[in-house]
Write a structure and sequence with these properties.
CATH class: Alpha Beta
Number of domains: 1
CATH superfamily: Gcn5-related N-acetyltransferase (GNAT)
Pfam families: Acetyltransf_1
GO molecular function: acyltransferase activity, transferring groups other than amino-acyl groups
Number of helices: 4
Distance between the termini: 20 Å
Strand content: 25-35%
Helix content: 25-40%
Low-confidence stretches: none
Largest sheet: 8 strands, mixed
Number of strands: 8
CATH architecture: 3-Layer(aba) Sandwich
InterPro entries: Acyl_CoA_acyltransferase, GNAT_dom
Shape: globular
Structural class: alpha+beta
CATH topology: Aminopeptidase
Mean pLDDT: 93
Protein name: GNAT family N-acetyltransferase
Order of helices and strands: EHHEEEEHEHEE
Length: 168
């Protein structure tokens, strides 16, 4: 498994993965990503901002995510309290390929991301998800994230979580 930055030529493959994830959310009865977001422009913006990452195995992209080493403005107005106040990494638009289903790829991704944080001397990961995104809620619970409150994106409340990392 290799985590690397995505390239503009990979937008079509990444968009297919996101479309699969959007359909999965709908099939699960979730309202997340059912309003035209994310879309191909979201991916292009992530690439231009340097935050588009893919997890690949033998040249096959299995997962896409925006990995952001910067402040998330929506996180500044949390209804609740973050565990830490310093630097953090934000994860958005985490989506796995159908080829990854049932293989623990998302869990592996989160573990690789933790190492990336520590390598960059960042010891906090913050993430949010819809209240009804059960698969993501299970992953972040299993990996030891702490529920911190609610944040708002595009007018909707989302559950916000943080994990504090130790300097490995």
């Amino acid at each position: 498994m290799q985590l690397r930055k995505a390239t503009i030529t990979e937008v079509p493959v990444i968009w297919e993965i996101l479309q699969y994830a959007i359909a999965q959310r709908k099939a699960d009865g979730s309202q997340q990503w059912q309003d035209g977001y994310p879309n191909e422009n979201s991916i292009r913006n992530d690439i231009y901002n340097g935050s588009a990452y893919v997890l690949e195995d033998n040249g096959t992209i299995l997962l896409y995510a925006a990995v952001i080493f910067d402040k998330e403005p929506a996180y500044e107005n949390i209804e609740g309290k973050w565990l830490t106040e310093g630097d953090y990494m934000v994860l958005h638009r985490v989506a796995a390929s159908p080829l990854a289903k049932g293989k623990g790829i998302a869990t592996q991704f989160f573990q690789i991301i933790e190492d990336l944080c520590v390598q960059n001397n960042v010891f906090s990961i913050k993430i949010d998800t819809n209240f009804d995104n059960v698969p993501m809620l299970k992953i972040i619970d299993r990996l030891g994230y702490t529920y911190c409150g609610e944040v708002y994106f595009r007018g909707s409340a989302r559950k916000a979580f943080e994990k504090v990392l130790s300097g490995k």
